Every structure is written in structure tokens, then in C-alpha cells.
Amino acid sequence: MTSPSDALPTGTRPVSMVTRLFYLLVSVAALVPAAFVIITPFDLQTQAIFAVFTAAIFLLVNRFKSRTATLVIVSLSAIVSTRYLWWRTTETLGFIDPFDMMFGYGLYAAEVYAWIVLMIGYFQVLWPLERQPAPLPADVKEWPTVDVYIPTYNESLDVVKPTVLAAMAMDYPADKFKVYILDDGRRPEFKRFAEAAGCGYLIRPSNEHAKAGNINHALTVTKGKLIAIFDCDHIPTRAFLQMTVGWFLRDRKLGMLQTPHHFYSPDPFERNLGTFGRVPNEGQLFYGLIQPGNDFWNATFFCGSCAVLSRDALDEVGGIAVETVTEDAHTSLRMHRKGWNTAYLRWPLASGLATERLSIHIGQRMRWARGMIQIFRTDNPLLGRGLSFGQRICYLNAMMYFLFPVPRFVFLTAPVAYLLTSQNIIVASALMVMAYAGPHMFHTLCTQSRLDGKYRYSFWGEIYDNVLLFHIMGPTLLALINPKAGSFNVTSKGGVLEKELYDTPIMRPLMILAVVLLGAIGVGIYRLLFTELFPGDAPVLWMNLFWCFYSAFTVFAALAVGRERRQVRAQPRVRIRQPVALYFDGRRSLLGRTEDLSLGGGLLRMDDLADDVTVNEEVYVNFEQIEGDSGVAARVVAVKGREVRLEFMPQSLDDERTIVSAVFGRADAWLNWDDRPPDTVGKSLVDLSGAIRGLAGMAFRNMRRPREGVQQPLAAPSRPA
Hints:
This protein is α+β, with helices and mostly antiparallel strands. It is 49% helix and 12% strand.
């Protein structure tokens, strides 16, 4: 059998066992001097020299872009951060006052959690695997059969229809794949559409186990060798099956291959902060870096959509897991325990709708958090057989991440304890704290910027976590206590928002925290200016004030996400450049290219002036990159120079299929998904400062206008378990 690495180009192959052994021996040999550096106590001056020396090493090595340089930088960061934690453990916990002890040990525990997550995070992404597609055999008879599942529950037909039409148009032999709508809503209009489109339509007697149960029922009805699963709003490109299926022939023990979840519409963070297309979205880090890192360790997670699974693997693990609400990740964990491999192809081959409302977005993350903690409690990756060390670490990191709310709350509020109550939570001078904590924060920030900078800009992770903080805290703690608590909820997609509003119910806990932080800052400034301080108090006060200012900055940036901006387009536009021709009734034709398209219409830039084109004139649009008859009737809605804006007027299901293919079906549609400038700390600060100014501007406008009825945010609908 051919090795999976044979399909990878030079420079992206997995390292050989000899190379891995070499790195292991080098790492073991380096542990002794590293341990000596970590545990040796320094006085203030020596520690300051150490800080400057390690920063200089980073600045020198960071100029090189090789993987070896990255390994050096990660190792340096690990040593500096571990040295800081060793110092905190051995020299800063001598509390006497019980309140000092309570606050101090709370902060220390949060720092231990952060250090563990940092270390296993470095391990997880140290060597991301850039897997390439495996070619299919020349003989089509050898291609496996594929069942394509599109589960749906309460989504509208307008959302589901493009996914079905695009799936049916995938480039794969017609007798080798079949598309099925799995309709847990049992809606007659969906059945009629399936019959008209020529795809399968499956329902079941009950809604037991929600999406997982829906898929498991379909497995008992269909017979394909492979199963491709798409959420009902994730529209595949024509190349999806040809780019993914080959790996199942290359590796006969491959149980699942995952591709990225890419979104052609902005999520609430991108829309409300105005960063769509400029700043990586919340999921970019996971799909851009973490999943390739998982792939190196044969620990790729199934994410519920845009993936292909082996029926044999599903049969061996008993189908999609139903014991937790994150049935996808739990299923891949069971596959790994049974000896199946998984893979990740970092090519976006489908695209979907992001959640529109912040409340719905948070509801989705609450389900993920609860589900991962449920797995941690019921099928802990550290326990049991069947997993390699790398797989255990990768799964553990995914689960530990969702325990962040309590440590994050501690980090945000720790300076408040000193500013309001003078509680000394670190038994050390301010200069010693800065000498040890400063290098730790510098190397952590700069190393993560090097590793993650293309996929998550500096400080943005804190904004995401702050928004989720109070909403995830309850479900994760509840799942730790009772992993069976909670029910499955569906992520609603599609919708408009007619006017700007502020989501006060979602943001209320953060608003209270912001008031507390501002109050603490006010008290600290008062103490600094108008009270008599003991010797050494001023540096401690300044340090805590700076810490509190930073906490307040990140909290106010998170509050800006609650400013729900208007969204009046039911069909988001996608920037697409492809040749197009306009045909007029008995007159002439115009050639040009598309600027942007949606399922409802598009903006065209013609090669010649469109002076004689009139508004409301009916035309025929031909997309030249689509084979066969690709013409669709349309109506002109605006003309300006060479620009023509059209509204599509499909007359049949074939017309709708053509529009879907033109907008979403191209194989290269989303290949520029991570084409953004590199991370810079200054730019991130400017972006977040702009978000805060936007929030202040909204508050000022609302103060000047008469108060109207408060529009409540949409809630994520639940479904029967």
C-alpha cells in the first residue's frame, strides 16, 4: 500500500522516523541545560539582563523564516514561560492574610492553566502538515461510490436549495454518487423540491439524537462506500469529491477527511466591527493552523460538515456518536481509538453562511463548549486505549480550551483586588514581577504572532474570549458536574436586520465588568494622587493600574461586538471575477466580467460603455466559464458608465442550478481564503481602538435620539434531543 506521504510535494512531507528520533534525542539532550536555566534564581539585575538577552535572541532568530528557526523560538518561549511559572511557584506564594491567599492562589491557578494550554498548544501546531490532494485512478471504475448527506431540520428551502443543487453538480460520475436531503422537519415542499431536482429524500419516524440520529438513520438506508456530509448551508464546489476521495484509495485505513469550514458572509464579529476580509475570522486559526497541526499527529477532528467519512469506519464505531452534543469530534475520537486514521485537506472546497446574530453565534459556541466538556468527562482522551501520545494531547487541548472562562475572569479582575482592597496577590516587588512576567508576556505574544499571525491577529483572541466569557462559563461548569445535562440546539442561518441595535441582554455581564474595572481605575488614580503611600507602593499601584487599563481596553473592545449593524441583504455578495456576456433582444451583445455576484443578482463591468442599456431592460446573461448552456434571464436594475447591476430572473430549476454554479461552483472559488497581510501588533491595536470609537459613537447617537422599543436579539432555536 502506498504511504500517504507519497502524495505530498517535496517540503511538505511528514518527517521520517529517523528525523523524528533525531529531534527527540536533541530535545532530551536540551532538557538538562533548559532545566538549569528554568530553576536558577536570579536577582533583579541578573533577571533583567536575562530578559534583554532572550529578547535579543528572539529578534535575531525571528528574521529567519525556516521551520528550524520556529522550533528555536518556540523552545525559547517555553523556557522563559516555564521559568516565570517556576519563580511564581517557589518565590511568590508566601501569603499570610487569608484574603491574600484566596486571591493569590486563584491567580496562580489561572496562570498554571494558561501555561498548560500554552505548552500543549505549542506541541499541537509545531509542525503543521500541508497535505495535498491525492489523485484518483485513471480508471473511473475504481472510484468508490459516495452518498452525499445534507441534513436539515428547520432551515428554509431558500437556504437548503443552493447546497443541494451544487452538490448534484459536483464533478463525479453520475452513477457513482447520490445526493440525499435528510429532512428532520418532514416538510412537503422539501419533498417536492427533491423530486423535481432528482435527488434523494429521507425522513425518519422520530427526531431522536438530532443531527447524529438523522445521519445514522440514513446510513441504514443508503449503500455508498463513502459518506460526504454538508450542513444545509455549506455549498460545495464542483471539485469537492475529486479533491478529497483520492485519499481513501491511498490510505485504506482512512476513516475521515475534513476540509475547512469557510464562510462567504461575515460573522457577527466581522460585521459588527467592520473587519470582514481584513482580519481573520474566529475560525481561521482552527482551520488554518490547528487542524494542519492535528493532521501531523493523525488527530484531525471531524467538524460535522464539509467532510468525507468511510462507511466501514462508521460501522465499526457504531455510527455517529450520540452521547454528546459535539457528536462530530466524539465520532473522530472513537475512530482513532479503533485504529482508523483521519486527514485534513487545507483547501476550502465549500462555503457557507456564517451566523448572523451575536446571540445565535454565542449559542453555537455554548453547544461546542458543553459538548467538548462532555467528552472530557465521559470519554477522556487521556484515559483508555487506542490513542497515540500526540492524539491525546491534541484532543486534550481542544477540550481544555473551553475551560477558559474562569481563568479569563481571574486575569481580567485580578488587579481590581489590589486597587479596591489593597490585597497583595503576588508576594514580590513590582520590579521583580515585571522582570519575570515581562519576558514571559513578550515571548508568548511574539511567538504566537509568528505561529498564528496569519490566522489570528494579536489581541483578537482575547476579544473573542471576552465576548463568550460569561455565556460559556455556566455550560462548561455544568457539564463538568453533570455531563448529561443540556440539549442540542440548531444554529439558525439566513435572515436580515433592518436597523442597527445594541444587544444589551447578551452584553450585560460584560457591561457590569466594565463598570467595575473603570471604578477600580478611578480608585487607583485617586490613591496615586491624593493618598500617602508606603515605600514601594507606587510601583505596585502603577503596575496594577496598567493591568486594569489593559483589561478595560479588551472588555470595551468586546462590548463593541454587541453593536449589531444593519443587514438588509438576504443574499450576501461574493467578489467574483469571471468572463460574462450580456445578450439583448435582437440588438447586440456586451462582453465583460463580473465584479460581485449573489444568488439574487450581480454587478458587471463591461468592456465597452453601456450607455444604451436601460433600467428594467431584460437581458440574457451567459457565464462563459460554465460548460454548456449557462444563460440566465435577468433584469437591469442600475447602469453607471461600464457598470451594470442585474437582478436574476430564473425561469426554471436549471436556471437556479446555473446561478449556483456561477457563484459557488468554481473549483478555485475560495483559494484566497487566508490571503491577508501578516499580523502586526500596532495594526491590531488600531483596529480595536476603532471598534471602541464606533461603540462610543453609537452610544452618543442613541443619547440624542428619542428612545424607541428595544428589539430583542434572535435566539438560537432548540430541537428535540
